[in-house]
Amino acid sequence: MQIETAAKALKELGHVTRLAIYRQIVKAGHKGIPVGEIQERLQIPASTLSHHISSLASAQLLEQRREGRVLYCVAKYNHLEQVIGFLQDECCVDESC
């Protein structure tokens, strides 16, 4: 993973509201969670939620799918794992752990 990609994901997750939103999405698992349910749980105005979801999507942390009139957010677990791996890849390379 390139450092710029990891930095973008970490930047987006560094915002308290976006991190709260992402935690709800990750908890939902592979089936995802409806945007309306995130809004209800976190009491975030729709326009604000939309802005934050867009930021998380642009960092490749989630994808959206529509089922009828319901819009779901689904975590891109493979990308999240790559970000975590990026942070762990060189753990203790300069010393023996």
Automatic annotation (TrEMBL):
Record Pfam families: HTH_20
Gene3D superfamilies reported in the protein's UniProt record: Winged helix-like DNA-binding domain superfamily/Winged helix DNA-binding domain (1.10.10.10)
Domain HTH arsR-type: 1-95
UniProt cross-references to InterPro entries, sorted A to Z: ArsR-like_HTH, HTH_ArsR_DNA-bd_dom, Metal_resp_trans_reg, WH-like_DNA-bd_sf, WH_DNA-bd_sf
Keyword terms: DNA-binding, Transcription, Transcription regulation
Coiled coil location: none
The protein's name: HTH arsR-type domain-containing protein
The species this protein was found in: Vibrio hippocampi
Classification lineage: Bacteria, Pseudomonadati, Pseudomonadota, Gammaproteobacteria, Vibrionales
